[in-house]
Write a structure and sequence with these properties.
It is a single chain. The protein has two domains: about 1-30; about 35-255, Porin, CATH 2.40.160. By secondary structure, the protein is α+β, with helices and mostly antiparallel strands. The chain has helices at about 1-30, 95-105, and strands at about 35-45, 65-75, 80-90, 110-115, 120-135, 135-150, 155-160, 165-170, 175-190, 205-220, 220-225, 230-235, 240-255. It starts with a helix and ends with a strand. The strands form two sheets. Strands 1-2-3-5-6-9-10-13 form an eight-stranded antiparallel β-barrel. A hairpin with a 2-residue loop joins strand 2 and strand 3.
Length: about 260
């Protein structure tokens, strides 16, 4: 009797294991193919881009926003390609800059300072390594990004204390391009089974992504106009280093 019960238990256990394995393979298969995603979130600057110490390389960038639109496809079981458009907007910290300017230029009285946001965007092409689990995939990816940056327009006005002469300088926005490095991790979780969809889309995905971006952009042909006297000055090229940590959440679609 004990031998029969043990044999029956082994048979039932094997059937349950096969059923679970089959279910897992079915769900895992649902995560194969390509993915299209749209995510957005916070972009956190650091190093020179976030520095606020009134140095030439200081970017005075505050925490900004990012939007990413991406497509990835697994060309083999453990490797895929990813194509992703990135857009970043970072406010310029006017308050800290004004305080630093007043501390450094005691010979003038600042009357106004206006500026716009830092802007950066471009396309990344890279490789990803997908780690698959039950209804979840973790993508590790690395790639090169062709980026277009915009140095913000700013206007500053002050009065020289000794002569009481007013000055107003305008520097228009300047753009530049360079290649950057980007690496990150993306979590994909399947929300719905394909049987609930009337179109041939396998899954609606919840996307959570964390990535790092580095680049340096040289801004050339910078012209400063003294508006009160209609004088123009050319200044040396300016190099801005960008280092960003980006946290994003969004949705994606899984398809063949």
């Amino acid at each position: 009797m004990k031998k029969w019960i043990a044999s029956l238990a082994l048979i039932i256990g094997a059937q349950i294991a096969n059923a679970q394995l089959g279910t897992f393979k079915l769900d895992e298969a649902m995560l194969l193919g390509g993915q299209f995603s749209v995510v957005g979130g916070l972009s956190v600057p650091f190093k020179d881009f976030a520095d606020k110490s009134f140095k030439l390389e200081s970017g005075y960038a505050n925490i900004g926003s990012t939007i990413k639109v991406g497509f990835s496809y697994e060309v083999a079981p453990f490797i895929g390609i990813v194509l992703q458009y990135n857009n970043f907007v970072h406010p310029f910290d006017k308050g800290d800059f004004i305080s630093d300017f007043k501390a450094a230029r005691t010979d003038v009285t600042l009357t106004s300072f206006e500026t716009e946001n830092w802007r950066l965007g471009g396309m990344m092409l890279g490789f990803l390594y997908p780690l698959k689990m039950y209804r979840t995939t973790i993508d590790s990816y690395v790639g090169a990004t062709l980026l277009h940056g915009v140095y913000p327009k700013n206007t500053i006005a002050f009065i020289e204390k000794q002569t009481m002469a007013p000055f107003q300088f305008l520097q228009d926005e300047v753009s530049g391009n360079n290649v950057g490095f980007q690496a990150g991790i993306k979590f994909r979780y399947g929300l719905f089974d394909k049987k609930f969809s009337r179109v041939k889309l396998k899954n609606l995905l919840l996307i959570i992504a964390v990535d790092y971006l580095y680049t340096e952009i040289v801004y050339k042909d910078i012209i400063i106009l003294e508006e009160l006297r209609s004088l123009a000055f050319s200044v040396p090229d300016y190099t801005q280093q960008y280092q960003l940590i980006n946290l994003s959440v969004g949705l994606g679609l899984q398809f063949d």
